[in-house]
Amino acid sequence: MSLIARTSLVSAATLGSRVLGFVRDAATAAVLGAGPVADALVAALALPLLARRLLAEGAFNLAFIPALALAEERGPGAGPARSLAKAAFILLSGSLLVAAVLAAVFMRQVIGLLAPGFEAGGPRAEVAVLCGRVAVLYLPLSGMAAIFGGIANRSYRVLLPALAPMAANMTVLAVIAALLLQGLMESDTAALAIAAATVAAGVAQLALMMAAARGCPPARFLNAAADWRGGLAVLRAASPALLFAGMSQFRLIIIIALVSAVPGAVAALNYAQRLMDLPLGLVGASAGAVLLPALVREKGEGTAAGRALVAAVAFALPAAAGLAVLAQPIVVTLFQRGSFDAEDARATALFLAVLALSLPLQGLERILAAAASAAGLVGAAEKVALASLALCFGAGAALGAAFGPAGAAGGAAASAGGSILALGALLARRGVLRFDSTLFPAAVGIAGATLAMALAVHFAAAAWPVPEGAGLAAALRLAALIGLGGGVYGACLLPLRALLKRRARA
C-alpha cells in the first residue's frame, strides 16, 4: 500500500473516530446532563482520559518506532527487536499497572486532589471514588495497546490500529444505548456503567492492536530476553512527546480542580473541551506531518517554523472565532437533549467561548514545540511546558476568583500564551524561528478576515430567530451560519493571496 493510501486510510479512520467521539459525548450528556453525577464521572475518568491522550494517539510511537527500527538493524534476525519490545512492554504496562493499583487504593485522595471542591464524603465524591476505582483498570490496557500498536505501525499495518479508537467509542456507545433504553438517567448506576464501559473500550483497543501486530517478528517477544536499557531509553525518549501531546488534558485537569466546588461546572467544562479537541488535534497533526519534514529540508534557514505559525493561525484563528460566536447554538444542537437541559447548555457554551480564546495559542504552542524537538531543544522545551502548567494554575485561580468558573477556564489561554512567548524567544535565539517579509502582512490579513467573518456570523445569527430545542431546524441554522462564516473568510482571503503572490514574484 502506498504512503498516500495509508495516510488517507488513517485520516478517514481518525475522522470517523472523532465523529463517533462527538456522538459518544452527546449521548453521555443525554444520560447524565451536566449535574453532580456527570461531575463525578468526569473526575473519575480524568486519569484514563489522560492515558488515552498520551498513549492512544500516537505520541509514544515517535520514540518507540525509531528504536524498533534501530534494533532491527543491530543484530541478526528479530532478536534485538523482540528484546526491546519485551522490555518496553513490561516497563510501560507494568508501571501503569502499579499506578492503577495505587490509584485504586488511594482513590479518595486522588479525587481530593483532582476535584478538591467535592465535599468529602458527599455524593459527588463517593460516586467519583467508586467510578474511579473501576476506570483506572484502563491504564495498563492502554500501555499494552500502545506497544502492540507501535509494532503494527512499524510493519506498516495501519488499518486495525486506526480503527481501534472507533471500536472504543462504539463500545461505550453500546453501553449508553442500553442505559437510555432502560431509562437510567442521571443515576449513579449509569455513571458506574460508563466507567466500566471505558475499561471495556480499553480491552477492545488492545484486542485490535494485538490482531494488527500478529505475525510481526517483534510481537513474538514472550521468550526473548528483555533489553532493559533499551526499554528505559524508549520511555525517556518518549517523555517530551507525551508531555506536549497531553498539554490540553493537563490544563483541563488543573482547571477542573479549580472549578470543582461549583456543581455542574466540571461536566460543563469537560463537554466544552471535547468541542475544542477536534481543531486543536488537526493543528497538532499538521505540526508532525508538515512542519517536521520542512524543518529537516530547510537545513537551518529558520523560515519553515515562521510559515507554519502563520498556517496554524490561518486555521486556528477563524475556528476559535467561530466557536466563540456560535458557542450557544453549537452546544444546543449537539448536546441539549435528555438530561442535558437549557441551563446546562448555557454553562457549557460560556466555558466554550472562554476556552476558544486559547485555541490559536495552543495551536501555535504545538507548532513551536515541534520546532523545538526538531532542533534538539527537548530539555528546554520540557521546562517551558512545566512552567506553563504552573502558570495555568496561578492564572486560573486568579481569574476564577475574579470572574467565577468561566474565568478560571481563561487560565488555559494565559498558560499557552506564556508558553509561546518562551518557546518563541528560545527558537529565535537559536535561529530556528525567522519571519520573511510576506508573513506579517499575511498574519494581518488573516486577522482581518477572521474579524469580518465573526461580525458577519454574529449579525446573521442575531437576525435569524433561534428555533426551539435542538431539532433539525436548529441544526440547519447552525450549518448555514457556519457556511456563511466559511464563505466570508474565504472571500476576504482571496485578495490577500493575490497580494502575497505579487510580492513573492517581485
From TrEMBL:
Q: One Gene Ontology cellular component annotation?
A: plasma membrane
Q: Report keywords, A-Z.
A: Cell membrane, Cell shape, Membrane, Peptidoglycan synthesis, Transmembrane, Transmembrane helix
Superkingdom of the source species: Bacteria
Q: Is Cell membrane set as a keyword in this record?
A: yes
Q: Does the keyword Cell membrane apply?
A: yes
GO molecular function terms noted in the UniProt entry: lipid-linked peptidoglycan transporter activity
Its localization reads:
Cell membrane
The annotated topology with respect to the bilayer is: Multi-pass membrane protein
Q: Where are the transmembrane segments?
A: 31-51, 87-107, 127-151, 158-184, 190-213, 252-272, 278-296, 308-327, 347-364, 384-403, 409-428, 440-466, 478-500
GO BP terms: lipid translocation; peptidoglycan biosynthetic process; regulation of cell shape
Pfam families xref list: MurJ
Concerning InterPro entries, the annotation shows:
Lipid_II_flippase_MurJ/MviN, MurJ
User: What does it do?
Assistant: Involved in peptidoglycan biosynthesis. Transports lipid-linked peptidoglycan precursors from the inner to the outer leaflet of the cytoplasmic membrane.
User: What protein family does this chain belong to?
Assistant: Belongs to the MurJ/MviN family.
What is the name of the protein in this document?
Answer: Virulence factor MviN
Native species of this protein? Xanthobacter tagetidis
